[in-house]
Amino acid sequence: MSGLRHKMLYELYERRLVSEIDRTRVPRHIGILLDGNRRWAKALGSPAEHGHQKGADKISEVLEWCEEMGVEVVTLWMLSLDNLNRDPQEVAQLEEIIASTVEQLSVVGQWQVRVMGALDQLPTSFADRLSNVDASGSGPGMVVNVAIGYSGREEIVHAVKSLIKIKTAEGVSMDGLAASLTVDDITEHLYTRGLPDPDLLIRTSGEQRLSGFLLWQSAHSEYYFCETYWPDFRRVDFLRALRDYAQRERRMGR
Q1: Among 74, 38, 32, 31, which Cα is nearest to 53's?
Q2: Residues designated as active site
C-alpha cells in the first residue's frame, strides 16, 4: 500500500509541476550534459559500463518528455574529446554503447538525429557508424543533436577553418576577411548552424560548470544544475528545470 501511495503522490506532484509551467515560455532549444554515469555505477559497486548503459537507456525517455513539452531542439553531450583519454577498455565499451544508442534513435524515425563533433579524431570504425547515421536521414520531428567527440573550443576552431577555406576559395584575401568578419560569419559555420541557440542548459550530477559545452552558442543561455546522476534523472527533475526557466527574466545581455 505504501508503494501505491508513493506512486500516487509522485504522479500528483508531476501534474502540479506541469500546471505551473507557462507553456509560452518553454525553451525552444535545450542542451543537456549527461553527467554522473560512472559515479552512479560506483555507488552501486558496479563497473562503469553499467552506468554508461543505464545512462544511454535514459535518453529516449527524456527526449519523449522534451517533445511532449514542445521543445524543438535538444542537444545531448554524449562524449567529449577529453573522455577519450580514459582507460582504453572503458572507452571502447562506451563507444559501442554510444554508437548503438545513436543508431537506435535514428531507426525509430521519430526525430531528426544529427551527429556533431570532431569525428576525424575518433576511431575509424566508430566514426563510420556515426557518419552513416548522420547521412541516413531521419524523422520529421524534434531535432536531436548528439555531440560526440565534442569540444566547444574545437568547434570554434573548426568553424573558423571552414570559413577561411570557403572565403579564400572565393578569392577573398586574409586582410579582406579580417576586415569583414562578423559574429554571424562564425555562427554559420558551427555544428549547430541553422538552429536557434540553446535557451536552457541542464547538467546533472551536481557539477556546476559547463566544461566548454556549446561554448559559442551559450552566451545568453540559462543554466540549471541538478544534483541527480543522469541514470536517475526523473521527469520531475526535468519539469523542475522547465519551471525554473519559465520563472526567470531573460535579459539577453541587456
Answers
A1: 38
A2: 35, 83
| Cell representation of residue 239 | 519539469
Question: Model's pTM, two decimal places?
Answer: 0.94
**Alpha-carbon separation of residue 15 from 5, 21, 239, 247 (angstroms):** 15, 10, 10, 18
Helix axes 235-246, 2-20, angle to 10 degrees: 20
User: What residue type is 191 in one-letter code?
Assistant: Y
Grid cell, residue 27, equals 525553451
What grid cell was written down for 49?
559500463
Q: What DSSP line would sit under 35-55, residue for residue? A: --HHHHHHHTT--HHHHHHHH
Which residues have C-beta within 8 Å of that of residue 93, sequence separation ≥ 6?
Answer: 48, 49, 52
How far apart (Å, rounded) are the C-alpha atoms in residues 178 and 187? 16
Amino acid at the residue 176? G
**Span 184-213, pLDDT tens digits:** 999 999 999 999 999 999 999 999 999 999
